[in-house]
Design a protein that fits this description.
Blueprint lengths: L15 H9 L3 H14 L3 H13 L7
Keywords: Cell membrane, Membrane, Transmembrane, Transmembrane helix
Subcellular location: Cell membrane
Pfam families: PspC (PF04024)
Length: 64
């Protein structure tokens, strides 16, 4: 069973977009582009809050 984790290797700010891209096995640039568009369309505040909440909720990948 696949689990969603923050990306350790493909991150720019918190690893949320990289982790989502790893989970769905797609290019992280596409996820980042979707995130930026969603942030702009929600008036910046909504997208930023969603990203911060995702950073808090999504666990870090265990090292073992």
């Amino acid at each position: 069973m696949k689990k969603l984790y923050l990306s350790n290797s493909d991150k720019i700010i918190g690893g949320v977009c990289g982790g989502v891209a790893e989970y769905f096995e797609i290019d992280p640039t596409l996820i980042r582009l979707i995130a930026v568009i969603a942030t702009v369309l929600t008036g910046f505040v909504g997208g930023i809050i969603i990203y911060i909440v995702a950073m808090i909720i999504i666990p870090k990948r265990p090292f073992f």
